[in-house]
Amino acid sequence: MPARRRPLSRRTTLALGVAGAAGALVVAGCDDDPDAPASTPTPAEDPDGDLVDSVLEELSGAYRLTVAGGFPALTAMHAAHIAALDGPQPTPAPGHASATAVRRNEQRIQAFLVDSAVGADSGALARLLASMSAAVAQQLADRSGRQP
Fold first, then answer.
1. Which residues contact residue 114 at a Cβ distance below 8 angstroms, ignoring those fewer than 6 apart?
2. Per residue in 103-125, pLDDT tens?
3. Taken in order 62, 67, 68, 74, is the CA torsion positive or negative?
4. Structural domain tally of the chain?
5. How many CB atoms are closer than 10 A to CB 123?
6. 14, 40, 42, 115: most buried by Cβ count inside 10 Å?
């Protein structure tokens, strides 16, 4: 009986997409002219680097607020989103947050993730951010457990 394949994780899929795009850029940059002077390739700056940094900053703030408000499902979701972007896990801040403050912030984060997905240069990153936005919307619509 053949072994069952395990599906790729989001992080692996994102990494493969980025690696594939980088490989395509390298191939596209090839020149068939053997007399052309050799150039030293310079690493291209990630066009989505600043976007990812701002998303991680927003997600870290949302994580801290959900911890302070006592919403473990939202906290776990934000922790998973931060991990998917290879960000450092934030440390919870002491304090208390009202359910209204958490809900408003989650609505803001959901819209921010939509805007970020639209603004992403990488299709893989855009899909990941759109998926994160959908997860936030789903948590906001969930009526089964404690919600903001």
1. 129, 130, 133
2. 999 999 999 999 999 999 999 99
3. positive
4. 1
5. 10
6. 14
